[in-house]
Amino acid sequence: MSITLQTILAQSGTDALCLGNLQLKRLQQLTKSSADVVLWDGISAVTTTAALVLVLAPASAVRLEILIGSLHENAIVVLPWGENPAFDALKRRLYRHGTVGAEGAKAPHHLWWGGVKPLATPTGVYRNHDTLYVSAFAEMWPHEDGAALLAADCKRLGLTYVVEPHLPDIDSTAQAATKIDFIIRQWETHDLPVFWLDPRTRVQRVPLLPQALGCDFAVHRRANGELDTGALYFGRSEAARSLLDVWARLARSHPQLPEAFLLDQAWTLTCAQCQIETAWLPDGYWQIGAMDDRGGSTSIRADAVRDAPALLAHAIAPLQMARKFDRHQAPEAHLIMQGPKDGRGTIIVMLRDVMTADVADVSAAIEATARAFDADHGGFSQLEIVLCGSTADIDTVMQLEVHSSVLTTDPSERLQPHAFRALAASDDAMPSLAPSSTAIDGIGRYANPAIKLLELQLDARSAR
Q1: What are the tens digits of pLDDT across the range 302-344?
Q2: CA 380 and chain centroid, separation
Q3: Are 138 and 173 in contact (CB under 8 A)?
Q4: What is the rounded CA–CA span in Å between residue 79 and residue 215?
Q5: What does 155-179 look like in DSSP terms, one character per residue?
Q6: Which of 67, 39, 72 is nearest to 53 (CA)?
Q7: What is the dihedral of CA 396, 332, 440, 171, to 10 degrees?
Q8: Beta bridge partners of residue 309, listed in sequence order
Q9: Would you call the peptide bond into 108 cis, given omega within 30 degrees of 0 as the criterion?
Q10: Rounded CA gap, 145 and 124, in Å?
């Protein structure tokens, strides 16, 4: 049925949608570019042309086909509760466009949107030099003309660019924090968004999409879920800078792990704590193959890619598969809130059986938990909310978080404002725990559960 956005925001049929200011701003902008707003009833086809379709509950495969088959090519499907794995089936049938992360009790969900065709640059007037395109080459770079060719591409297209031909320690075959430091330095030096280009790339067309969208971060994700680090956009926002900082610190803490995996983990940590907007670049922004002299739709091409070694690829694969749906997965927390730095340690709240529970119940339980911690943290230094769809998810969290307090709840339960104070007081013998995860400038952590899980898997394989 057709309905105004204001009506949906005021009363969604269950509880009012809990959106943060930045999430609401993006939703309103999406609404302006749509012909109408439709709250899908879970059964009917969408008859409105170029509609913004809000989906608040999952549906069967047959009903999803009815929905998707009826969508106009310019329609946008919006999931206000995009962190819930119950929507994976719908996401699988759509092209991802964007996400906005969670932030505290006022924005405890992940906003997600997509469509039946890839994300495209909206109509408008844009200037080529409003984004800084940067790249850097190692001192012993094997292709001596690489820097000149890439610089020539940027110059031909009228781009503002910095291409450093002899940057020490940039290593094209292994993780190097120096690359991230270079990006940060350019971000700090120039008052422009920064678009990193891998030194093996050639720019065929002006990649205007991220600049046109005004997002915080833009990246291409492969079909297997892995991020492509050859084309990365960082906007002029605190959220973008926080993502860079977390990525750099993870790179220094775990130099043996692939940079794409560490960027993925930095992204999960950042969007679990702030409303960072991510644009998911279509395939044309990062393709493998020779330059097409005839032009075409491709913006950036590379002659090679670097994948994780076989041992790492096998261990990382399950994490990548879930990330195809642009969401966190257990043991990762989709929402992290900070308490006192010298508190009792981390409290992890696991919502169990979320795949079989009512989606509205899951969302309400998340909101109640976040509000309770915001009202009284009970002395806990950090709250993490983890959605668990299976017993295996719960077992993984319990295996990794041996130094944290863990509370398992049902989606039908609602934590009250005094809940965390009562939890702390219920066990006077509980020792004062050092936080199992250290905050990074209020945004991220040094030790992410997915990284710990990967390291445990690698240690186990090495011992065999």
Answers
A1: 654 555 666 677 777 777 777 889 999 888 999 999 999 888 8
A2: 26
A3: no
A4: 18
A5: HHTT-EEEEEEEETT--TTS--HHH
A6: 39
A7: 90
A8: none
A9: no
A10: 36
